Amino acid sequence: MNGFNEAYIWLIPPFGATLVLVMSVHESPLAQPKNIFFGHVLSGLSGLIIITLIGSNIYCLGLGVGLAIFIMMITNTVHPPAGGNPLIVILGDQTIGFIFMPLATGSLLIILFAIVYNKVFGREYPFKK
Question: By CB neighbour count within 10 A (0-12 exposed, 13-18 middle, 19+ buried), where does 8 fall?
Fold first, then answer.
């Protein structure tokens, strides 16, 4: 093994995509702190809800992503990269602890990075219309 914990290696795609948003389109509503934090946390919880109620099988993947999109839409916290979190939760058979660490903690760290990064470049972040 190369030193990576296989349970957490799956976080690279969603968090990487989040970083692309905060660094390149920081004014987008999809890149704002509320959307980043709640998008990742609520979508992770969506996957957890599905595996708790139905179990972990191939059909749950679509249900988990669909539920995540629905919850993000009704809470006005749509964050496209977070759409991958239910897949990670379901495929990894994760628990509630995964929602707190690394999802919530990682989201907060990305938001802090985004604030500093955008300040260095003299850009307003979080962006206010």
Answer: middle
User: Alpha-carbon distance 48 to 43, whole Å?
Assistant: 9
Q: Is the per-residue pLDDT at 108 higher than 80?
A: yes
Q: How confident is the model at residue 4 (pLDDT cuts 50, 70, 90)?
A: very low
Burial environment of residue 84 by CB neighbours within 10 A (0 to 12, 13 to 18, 19 or more): buried
Nearest-angstrom CA–CA distance, 55 and 26: 37
Residue 55, both tokens:
């179990």
Cβ proximity of 84 and 70 under 8 Å:
no
